[in-house]
Amino acid sequence: MEVAPFPLWGGDETGRSDGMKPSQVPWKWLLFCLLAVLAFGIALIPKLIGDTSRFEDRVAAELSSWIGGEVKFIGPVRVTFFPDVSVRGQLAVQDSTRLPSVQTLTVGEAKVSLDLVDLLRGTIAIDALRLLKPRITLRDGPTAGVSQAQAPQALFTNLLSGAPMRVLDVRAGRIALGPRGSSIKEIYAHLDAGKDTGAISGFGAFTYKDTTVRYSLETGASTNVGVVESFPLTLTLTSKSIRARLNGTASYASELKLDGDMQAETDDARKFLKWVGLSLPAGDSLKGFSAAGAFHVTGPTLTFDDGTFTLDGNKAVGLLALTATGSRPRVEGTLAFDRLLLDPYLGKTDQTESKQASLSSTAALPFGGLLLQSIDADLRISAAAIDAGALKLGRGGFTVTAKKGVVASEVGELGLCGGSADGRLNVDLAQAPPQVNVVANLADVSMDTCLKPLGLAVAIRGTGRLKTELATEGNDLAQLTDNLTGTLKIDAEDGVVPVDFAHLLTGRAPLNGEGWSHDSVTAFDHLDADCRLSPGHIWCQSLSMRTPQGNISGAGGVDLTTQTLDWNLTVANPIIPARASQLTQEGVPSVSIRGSLSQPMIRRADRPTLGEGGLQTSPAGTQVLPH
Question: Distance between CA atoms of 615 and 376, rounded to whole angstroms?
Answer without folding.
Answer: 67
